[in-house]
Specification:
about 475 residues; alpha/beta; Helicase, Ruva Protein, domain 3; 4 domains; 6-stranded mixed sheet; 20 helices; 6 strands; globular
Length: about 475
């Protein structure tokens, strides 16, 4: 469909749209209209209907799935993943949502995470298999009787795949003999890099930066002082908070502040479908960090590697957790000296409690959504390379309360799209104004943060006997 042209809908869609206009609070009608628009290729119109339906029912999975599908078909992969984030953080989420996540991740070129999401989804419900996604991942499309599915895996041939790497919510696999793993490569996925980002590049979050500085940086910067008290350089910190709040950015800044090596570890660098390979990948990653000390070793989405063993339905998953704990402890007292282990998660309550023992991730640091001044600073950075008129970023920051960095990027992207259309018509770049950003902010909603805070509230108010979530109390009681 050509941009800028108002589509002419057929009579059936026109009737549905008129009915929705006359009955704006009719959720089933709006959802049906969105599905019909999507089916006939009116993607922007379908997105608008699903957004309106989502306002009526923020937790409606059918509406969320429709909105995500509309985003993916418009190549808005980042927005699709942001909409899926609160759903994927919920245990036992529908497998079809995992397939949608795989499609979005493929669009962003993240094959490793896409494969993980797709494997996990079809392991629980083979009927959601998507041949196009399977082909893009260079794996055969799964079905109820496919030999690659765990229930039909063969154990006679060495190296036979186990099927999907299962998370704690995956369905149990049928019994079979352990498959031999291929010879492990040495930390194939993880790479050593040098970060040029420092804490000066992180807007706001002074309390978080101070916690990281005392726990991780000062022992290396002033070793004699800490040695006098028997404290060694090293240790672990778990960063947690809503999606898009800047946890990864903070980890890079900590490495840059120290001038240390930085190793960023994703799920695709560790998880493997063969028995024993994930554990070997984990050990090789820690060995890589130890050879490059001082080093900041950063695990993103650590809840997938450190899930509660009581929730794990596969022995394989429990073995990964055990290996992770063993690597954090080290083979001897000095094994991890100079290795600063940072991890980030959106779901800290699903992490095995053994990881919070002293000497492991014994400090939990809450990374909140950015405050007013931080939002203004983030907006300045996002707009610095664009044609601008006189801008009042503080005004936009006031209009974007509860939004995180990812939400703010979405606001700027929407404003840029509007200015691009104006510039094409004018034949020259038209500067972006404060009103453009305010209009885009008015149409945006910090859905992921609200969903995350709703979940956090349950844990803070009803499952906080240990006091682990005390840092969340001011946010839950004061702002949400």
């Amino acid at each position: 469909m050509t941009e800028g042209i108002v589509p002419v809908l057929d009579a059936g869609l026109q009737a549905l749209r008129e009915a929705a206009r006359l009955s704006p609070d009719n959720l089933p009608l709006r959802r049906h209209l969105g599905e019909q628009l999507l089916a006939k290729g009116y993607l922007a119109e379908a997105e608008a209907e699903f957004r309106a339906a989502l306002v009526l029912a923020p937790r409606d999975l059918d509406v969320t799935a429709g909105l995500v599908d509309a985003f993916i078909r418009q190549s808005a992969y980042g927005e699709a993943l942001a909409a899926l984030e609160p759903v994927l953080a919920t245990p036992g989420y529908p497998p079809r949502m995992g397939v949608l996540a795989a499609r979005a991740l493929l669009g962003e070129g993240d094959l490793g995470r896409a494969a993980y999401r797709y494997y996990e989804a079809i392991s629980r419900d083979p009927s959601v298999a998507d041949p196009e996604v399977a082909t893009a991942l260079t794996i055969p499309a799964a079905g109820p009787a496919h030999p690659a599915h765990p229930a039909n895996a063969t154990s006679s041939a060495p190296g036979a795949p186990l099927g999907p790497v299962a998370g704690p919510d995956a369905a149990p696999a049928a019994p079979h003999a352990p498959a031999a793993a291929p010879a492990p490569a040495e930390a194939d996925g993880a790479e050593v890099e040098r970060s040029r980002t420092t804490f000066a590049d992180v807007a706001g979050m002074d309390a978080v930066k101070e916690s990281l500085r005392v726990k991780l940086l000062l022992p290396l910067q002033q070793p004699e002082l800490f040695a006098a008290y028997g404290k060694r350089a090293g240790g672990g910190v778990l960063l947690y908070g809503p999606p898009g709040a800047g946890k990864t950015h903070l980890a890079r800044a900590a490495a840059g502040e120290l001038g240390a090596a930085f190793v960023s570890v994703g799920l695709a660098d560790i998880l493997d479908m063969y028995i024993g390979s994930s554990e070997r990948n984990l050990r090789a990653t820690f060995d890589l960090a130890r050879r490059n000390r001082p080093c900041v070793l950063f695990f993103d989405e650590v809840d997938a590697l450190a899930a509660r063993r009581s929730d794990a339905r596969h022995t394989h998953n429990r073995q990964i957790v055990n290996q992770f704990l063993a690597e954090l402890d080290g083979v001897d007292a000095d094994a991890n000296e100079g290795v600063l282990v940072l991890a980030a998660t959106n779901a800290p309550w699903y992490i095995d409690v053994a990881f919070r023992r002293p000497g492991r991730f014994d400090q939990l640091v809450f990374v909140p959504p950015p405050d007013l001044s931080a939002r203004a600073a983030i907006l300045r950075i996002l707009c610095r390379d664009k044609p601008l008129a006189e801008m009042d970023f503080e005004a936009v920051a006031r209009a974007t309360e509860h939004m995180v960095g990812a939400d703010l990027k979405g606001v700027v992207d929407r404003a840029v799209e509007v200015k691009l259309h104006e510039s094409i018509r004018a034949g020259r770049p038209v500067p972006m104004t404060t009103m453009d950003l305010l209009a885009a902010a008015k149409a945006a909603r910090p859905t992921a943060v609200r969903e995350w805070m709703a979940t956090a509230r349950n844990y803070v108010l009803h499952s906080n006997e240990s006091g682990a979530w005390d840092d969340l109390l001011p946010w839950i009681k004061g702002k949400w």
